[in-house]
Each structure stands twice: as structure tokens, then as C-alpha cells.
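Shape matters. Shown next:

___
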Amino acid sequence: SITTVGQLSRNEQRLSMLDLGYGKIESYQKLEKLGEGTYATVYKGRSHLLSGYIALKEIRLEQEEGAPCTALREVSLLKGLKHANIVTLHDIIFDQTTLTLVFEYVDKDLKQYMDDCGNIMNIKNVRLFLYQLLRGLEYCHSRKILHRDLKPQNLLINERGELKLADFGLARIKSFPTKTYSHEVVTLWYRPPDVLLGSTEYSTPIDIWAVGCIFYEMACGRPLFAGTKVEEELYLIFKCLGTPTEKTLPGVTSNVEFQQLRLANYNGESLLNLAPRLDLMGIDLVQKFLRYNPLERISANDAMHHKFFGVYPSLIHNLQPTQSILDINDIQLTRDHGSKLIMKSVTSKRSSIHL
């Protein structure tokens, strides 16, 4: 197990310094437990190799099964992703009973950020976070990687205002031609209707629908489709966007699960009324994210060039993957209501590396 602060004598500490290095458990100290799940425990820690704090995700290995497949997915994918808007995996440590992933430490996620704001975010920050989400996602999608579990709890926010995609446990490489995948993915509120209706053939648009839901939630302070089960989730979507037809979602009328719903035909509601804080360009972008037909949803790359982001200088599109958009003059986090809590809170013990 990982060494706990104060556990070693000074003599032992001096001797252990000889054993430091990447891939070695002695290189890290646990400070406090942040959270625990079925397969993993997350600790805030300190590294003898890096400055600042790190997060240690300790995954228990079952002798019969070895490393959980979600952990192996996370390792294999994150090792190859180097981007300012994707959480950094610093190190991987194997031993007989555990797999430990060493991440950069970020003490807040988007859900916590919104809660601290009283769910009233400055629209400038909505734009800032949305662009960074799209930027990280475009990097993944260009490498044929789907995240498949985008939600505010899996988006980390540091004190500077940089957003980072995290928790790639459900992510997978998309191969061509499209293969049949499990449809038991994505937290219900952010799951697209085609997947809710049983589609097992999907691609990058599964993430784009989730982006649309997150965009609305940031702008309006509440989830767009907060269903408790699949049938209720579909009802909320149809009521808001109108019941899908063959024109808007080809094949839907012959879908057995759709036929069994027996829901009324809804005309849909005006997003202008539902999202009064968004201007016309913001509404247009939400609508492009939330198209019924996956093939008609805007791509992450095209969304980054949408007029909603027209206030940003054109050089924002020329940054190297590891460069932050906050390195550009005049792009910065705006002080939100409750920002003292946001930037200075040290009372929250919840982990932003989720289990």
C-alpha cells in the first residue's frame, strides 16, 4: 500500500529516497481519503517527483479477474492523451493487489462549481467552460475516442478556470466500420434518445448530445432532462423537443421500444423560453447539439467555430494541444457569484477524480 505521512522514521525516509522513481509506490505519500467506490479508493497525495498535490486512484485487483476492464481502458486511453483540457495521468503503479493511477490534482468539478455559484454562472464563464469542453472532446474524437460518460461530475475545474475531461473508465476507441457497443452507458440525464431507444451503433454524436445538456445546465442552473428512469427521460425529451418522426429520427416509428412507450405527440417547447439567459446564437448552438438524428448533430470541431464563440480571437484555433486558451490575452475566468467559496474553499473533501 502507499506510504502514509509520518509513517516512516527519518532514517527510513532517507533510505527510501534511493528507491524513488516513476512506477514506484515509495514516490508518493497519501494525505487524506477523498472517496471510495466499488473497485477504487481515491486519495489526495503528495509526490516526491512532482511539485504540488496529486490524486491517487487506487484500484483493487481481483485475483480471479485481474484489473477491472474499466481501469484498463482508462490507463490505455489516458496514456496517449496529452492535452490542456484532459486530466493528466502522471504515473501508473502495479503490484499484486492494486493498480494505482497517479493524476494531477484538481479539487473541484463542474457540478461543485455550479453549486458554489448558486447555479447562476456568468455567461462568460459558460462560454469559457463550453469551449474548453469542446476542445478536449475534439482532440479525443479526432483520435476516434468516445468518452461516453460526459457529465458535470466528470469535468474538472482548477483555480485558473481550466476545464479538464476526466474519468475515462467508459471511454473506448471507435473502430471502423461501426461496431455494436453496449447501450448501458452515459448517466441517464445526458444520454441521447437514440441510445435510450436501444441503439447499439453509435459514434461521436453520443458525446455531443451530452455537451448540449451540459451547456443548458450551465446556462440555466438546472438539468435539462432530469429523468429517473428511461421512460421518464424520453418523455421529458419528447415534451421539450417534440416527439420524433421519421424525418427527425429515421427508423423511429418501427422501433419496438418507441412503439411500446405510447406517449402523446408533443410539438415541443421554445428553447428561448426555457433558456432566457442565452442569446440567439447560444440557442442555435444548443439546438445543433440536441438534434434527434445523430448524423445531424454538430461536430465538436464545427461547434468550436460557431458564432457563439465569435468574441474570441481567431488565434484560439491555432493553439497546440497542450496550450491553454487562458494563455491568450483577455481570455480569463470571470468572478462568479460565490467565487470566494469557489476559489478558496478548503472544506470540501470530495474527490474530483471519480470512481
